[in-house]
Specification:
Blueprint (H helix, E strand, L loop, with lengths): L3 H9 L4 E7 L5 E7 L9 E6 L3 H8 L2 E6 L8 E11 L2 H7 L17 E14 L4 H15 L9 E4 L3
Antiparallel strand pairs: 1-2, 1-4, 3-6, 4-5, 5-6, 6-7
Amino acid sequence: MRDEREELRQLMDEFKTAILVTRGRDGQYHARPMQLHHNGPEGALWFSTSLDSQKVADLRADPHCAVALHDGGSSPTYVSISGIADLVQDRELIHEMWEPGWKAWFPDGPDERDLVLVRVRPLHAEYVNPKGGRAKVLAAMIRRLITHEHLEPDQKHQVDLPH
């Protein structure tokens, strides 16, 4: 039996961008693409943002959030994560995690007062990662057309993660 947590960790390392989903005070869900930082401590997902952003306001009102990972192409592989977010303003950590690509949003660098880290601590993850990729998905689609059976390209894995 393969270790689903290890497969999930390896799979997540392949993604550079994530969709962070928050719930606003109006009850509506808000999704936005975010650059994913992989090297953060504690196995959490990390993002950088502005303190005055709507996502920060959303997370202050309700720290529950979701993160979706998909490459946007025709790959059948995806990851969906439910978690709890908190805002981290630790300047030492911000300096440690600073990436040059953030300069477009934070021209003053890691000392910019508006810069805050969003740490998402995963509670639950679901993922599909078919061995055989697009060929397996295409085969499942053809079988479905012929047999009218509901066939998925691969099993959905569910992993509860420690809080």
